Amino acid sequence: MGSAHEHLQRHLDQRPWAADFMSTPFAQDFLARSPYRDLHPRLLSALERCAAWPLPEQYDELAREVPRAAQVKLPRFVCESREAVREIGGYEKHVAQLLAVPTRPGHWHDFFNMVVWAHFPELRWALNAVHVDPQAGPKDPRNGRAPAQNVAATFDETGMLVVSTSRSVLAALRELHFKHVFWERRAEVLATTRFWIVGHGMLESLLVPHAGLTVRSLQLLVPALPTPAENDAFRFELDALAASRIHGWRAARTVLDPVPVLAIPGYSDNDSPDFYDDFRNIRFTPCSRRPASSDVNPD
Fold first, then answer.
1. pLDDT band at 194 (very low <50, low <70, confident <90, very high)
2. Would you tell me the crossing angle of helices 147-158 and 121-132 to the nearest 10 degrees?
3. With b meaning 16 or more CB within 10 Å and e meaning fewer, what string describes 4-24?
């Protein structure tokens, strides 16, 4: 029976560049700050043991560190072959048909793609299903995507789940009252609301953040937040709920509410009202694009 070391050695033999790549330091200082410190503790521990960049094939082992619901399967992570992606008809079809995610070595964007898959696999399978659905809707001639696929692409890169027990907090966020929510109601937000970034592009951008970074959020109203012992089960429920909402994007207009991510308490040095008065940080005038009849949890 081959050991993990023998498995890795076979990859090194097949790819001479890999030995040099594995000597490249894997910077870990980002793990101590938001949002990265909220990754699953088992994944954090595994990443802290990585002295060098893991190979794409090692992402499978890292992703399995994060518990998931019994019925949910993860894809494999494989070193990207542009020829294979082209022959099968594109990246999303490669994922859907081969159950394998093309991954570039040493690439933060693709590393965080694995991180999101590990934590929210049902959500990611739902996005993939929208991307490859030929019946998703009429195509935009500018990019060949249906409206639901445009929304899925945006959420894939810059998405966030905003999960709260407070209907009024979610309503204020929809109306873009960011100073009111994050400063004037700061203690309430910390007690009632959680933020999970599920856009891997945004996770990459936050490594070196700049003013004005904005996520596109999917709001979920919940009856209660979990205790630490309930965190995994709660995440499974959110994953399934978010996936259900994403599947529904084909049939109804979807609004992903913007949130200036650095305005969230703990995400930057924002513990002053001056932060929220600075137009460089908050670039939205309070309003809402959402129809008056829409709700955060139609299911």
1. very high
2. 150
3. eeeebeebeeeeeebeebbee
197 in Cβ contact with 35 (< 8 Å): yes
139 token code pair = 């195509």
Q: Are strands 257-260 and 214-221 parallel, antiparallel or unpaired?
A: antiparallel
Tell me, rounded to whole angstroms, the distance of Cα 143 from its chain centroid. Answer: 23
Which helix (DSSP H) or strand (DSSP E) does residue 259 occupy?
strand 257-260
| DSSP-derived secondary structure letter, 24 | S
SS3 96: helix
Q: Which of 256, 242, 244, 248 shows the shortest CA–CA distance to 289?
A: 256
Q: How many CB atoms lie within 10 A of CB 133?
A: 17
Q: What is the pLDDT of residues 157-188, one digit of tens each?
A: 999 999 999 999 999 999 999 999 999 999 99
Domain ranges of the chain: 22-150, 154-277
Q: Which amino acid is at 5?
A: H
Tell me which amino acid residue 144 is: G
Q: Report pLDDT digits (tens) over 23-45.
A: 567 888 999 999 999 999 999 99
The DSSP-derived string for 101-149 is: EEE-TT-HHHHHHHHHHHH-HHHHHHHHHHHH-TTS-PPPTTTS--HHH
Residue 163, strand partner residues:
194, 220
Structure tokens at 25: 């330091």
Is the Cβ–Cβ distance between 98 and 88 less than 8 Å? yes
Q: Phi-psi bin for 162: left (phi > 0), alpha (psi -120 to 50), beta?
A: beta
* Global pTM exceeds 0.85: yes
CB 11 within 8 A of CB 57: yes
Helix%, strand%, coil% for the chain, nearest 5: 50, 10, 40
